[in-house]
Amino acid sequence: MLLLDRIRNISLICLTAFGCAGNILTFIIVNRCFFRKTSSSAFISGLCIADSMVLCLLSFQVIGKMYSPVTSYDCGVFFFLDVFRLLSVWIICFINLERCSLVFNPCHISRLTSRKKAYIFVIILFIISLIIFSHYAKHMNIEYTYSTNQTMPIRSICVFKPKFHRVAWECIRSALTYWLTVPVCIICNIIIIKCLYHASRFQRTSYNNFNETLNLSSKQRQLTGMLVTSSICFVLTVTPSTIHSIYLAISKNFAGQQYIIHVLTNILLHFHHASNFLAFIFSCSRFRVELIDFFQKFFCAGIFEKWHKRSTATTEQMYVYSTRHQKTPIKLFTSKPNMRKRNNQNGIVVITMNNFNTRQGKKHGPGREAFYK
Asked: Domain G-protein coupled receptors family 1 profile, which positions (predicted)?
């Protein structure tokens, strides 16, 4: 059992590191120019924040118990963990409902895809989650496990009070979080995939205004592919844990083998909080393009700029050819900051300005040459 707990703890910490990095990148990409004006960007942003909070709270709980088994914040962590987990699941559920409404009402996309309304809706979901779990402040407390001499606590845990109906609440919490949302996501995914399949067949067989229809719906189709893939990952990772929890509630079988299954399904359950970044990468080409452009712009630009500064000389040389004598080069080299004017034997007046850095960190514009005969 101790080995399984260590495997679970290490897996959760690794999932937190990978999932938080992926959620941060996803949050940045969906708020850039291509996805920014859609309502799905608001839902995905809220999903990234909720998933990151769930992963961070899990790792904080694991690491805190490793270094200090006796803590006073167990109930607070337990409360916010359930709040953000429920928020994450509800956002995924309403994303599927939104995609279904867009599939059935393609002519009302501008009405159904309001970004401001989506942000307000995510905030309302968060407030509802806080209200649902607000009774934890009354029905939960911290219990301490003492040593053999009963003087020093060696471990603390947050549990429900004895008079609280724990079994009934666990069924309600599981139903709100997984038992109701998973069937809704499955039904919505089947409907969306079926409608997209029929739409693609219709576009292949019709030739009137084909390019115009493709251009107008390309963004929504890519968003739909992203969100459907994320929803499928959610269903695949959550379904085993949901089925196993229902089995445990019915059979009351808590043997050692069931504990192993519980640990494995629990790791898989928390994997969906870190899987959205992978789902978006593999399902949407535009997301990959935006991600590569982000890395090139913000990470590679500084390196290339340093290399460019080192490889560029502080002065420049130019050759100007006379109009009187055929192919007679006149080498212009300026080394003073002031503008200079000189004549040569060919009757060309050359006005030059220096083109090198006078101070470190500042650049002058390129030199301008004017030629008058």
From this structure: 22-280
Check whether residue 281 and residue 333 sit in a common domain. no
And the tokens for 59? 């790792």
3-state secondary structure of 160: strand
Burial of 70 (0-12, 13-18, 19+ CB in 10 A): middle
* Confidence band of 320 (pLDDT split at 50, 70, 90): very low
State pLDDT tens for residues 156-189.
888 888 888 887 888 888 888 888 888 888 888 8
Residue 126's nearest CA partner among 182, 56, 22, 43 is: 43
Query: What is the pTM (predicted TM-score) of this model?
Result: 0.73
**pLDDT at 207 exceeding the cut of 70:** no
> For residue 57, what are the domain limits?
2-300
Residues 134 and 199 in one domain: yes
**What would the mean pLDDT of 275-283 be, rounded to a whole number?**
90
DSSP secondary structure string for all residues of 41-99: HHHHHHHHHHHHHHHHHHHHHHHHHHH-S--S-HHHHHHHHHHHHHHHHHHHHHHHHHH
Provide the token pair at 201.
């067949």
Number of structural domains, the chain?
2
Task: DSSP for 309-363, please give it.
Answer: HHHS-SS--EEEE-SSSTT-EEEE---SSS-EEEE-TTS-EEEE---S-SSTT--
Same domain, yes or no: 244 and 368: no
Check: CB of residue 97 under 8 Å from CB of residue 188: yes
Instruction: Give the number of other CB atoms < 10 A from CB of residue 332.
Output: 16
Q: Does the residue 341 lie in any domain?
A: yes
Per DSSP bridges, beta strands 349-352 and 370-372 are: antiparallel
C-alpha–C-alpha distance, residues 318 and 371, integer Å: 13
186-207 burial: b if 16+ Cβ within 10 Å, else e: eebbeebeebbeeeeeeeeeee
In a domain, 60, yes or no: yes
Domain membership of residue 308 (yes or no) is: no
* Surface-to-core class of residue 125, CB atoms within 10 Å of its CB (0-12 exposed, 13-18 middle, 19+ buried): buried
Q: Residue 306 falls within a domain, yes or no?
A: no
C-alpha–C-alpha distance, residues 342 and 46, integer Å: 67
